[in-house]
Amino acid sequence: MGKSIRRFLYLFLLCGFVSALSAQEHAEPAKLEQTDARPASPTPNFVRAFSSADDVRKSLHPILDRSIDIIAGPKDPEPRVEGLQSPAAVTTDSNNRVFIADRGAKTVHIFDFAHGKYGLLERGNAHLGIPIALAVDGQDNLYVTDELSRTILVYDSTGKFRRTMGKLSEEESYFESPAGIAIDNATGNIYVCDMHRHMVVVLDNRGRLVANAGKRGGGDGPGDFKLPTQAVIHDGELFVLDAGNTRIQIFDTALHFLRAINLPYADGRTGLAVDDQGNIYVSDPVVDQIEVFTREGRPLYRFDLASLKSAFLGQPAGLWISEGSCLYVIDEQKNVVNLFQIARQNAQQCQ
After folding, report:
1. Phi/psi class of residue 137: alpha, beta or left (left: φ > 0; alpha: ψ in -120 to 50)?
2. Which of 58, 106, 297, 305 has the fewest Cβ atoms surrounding its Cβ within 10 A?
3. Is the dihedral of CA 160, 235, 274, 262 positive or negative?
4. Verdict on whether the full-model pTM lies above 0.85
5. Three-state DSSP class for 80?
């Protein structure tokens, strides 16, 4: 009888060990699958949406009110525009003024929330035609890619026109269709996407040609482009949205190819931005999302901004990140700009 009990106990323990081993083997794939999964997206905090003078203007003394016109250019005889009509690009300067290129209104809006001011850049004057892209250098000079004249227009920090880049004659330009623009503050060089020439052109701060990449007719090899539309400089690297090839190409500032990131979708509306950690943000206006990649191209997060509370976002297009964690998103459907605080420890507070 004692032997029978011992045999029963032995079989019971053996069955329990086999069951535990089997359960561990079945649990292992689930553990691997969880490790490979994309990490949960940190929800960006909505700060504000703005689209007109009413969103920023405060009651000002008449003398102070005149300072808006001095900064943004004198009033013109045309009907005054005080709201976004067809925003195409957004950027900021060191004073946290927000500049928005507006193709529909044929002007650049200036939102100064810190001082409760709003203005326009030179509307109705001879220089500005149809602004489509913007960049600011280390001295707060504003560079405007102008679709109508096919040139780059340069304004100082007070909004005064300084010079034109790329103009060969009264009717001819160096560019065929200049689009996205970025400035390397370390060298002063200016990087311009010439979309329909399928090239990226580099100028020095006097407008002289330094280098170019790509070839006429376009291509899909490393360093070739097909309809490049956006450019960003960050930490010694140039990020170019190669929209026709649905990818981002990354170069050093001497235009040596480094790597590429393939995208699920890209077109002329797709926005591109890079935060202070080197993460890459790409908007997709078709599915109303912003995809975030690491600097090396690994998918990191996906922001479904249309689902965020208080946000007025419909179709995210142009992007800009200031202070490393303040994300500006153009809604091309509703003609509104949304500001989000990227969730990050010790991030500068977006205003």
Report:
1. beta
2. 58
3. positive
4. no
5. coil
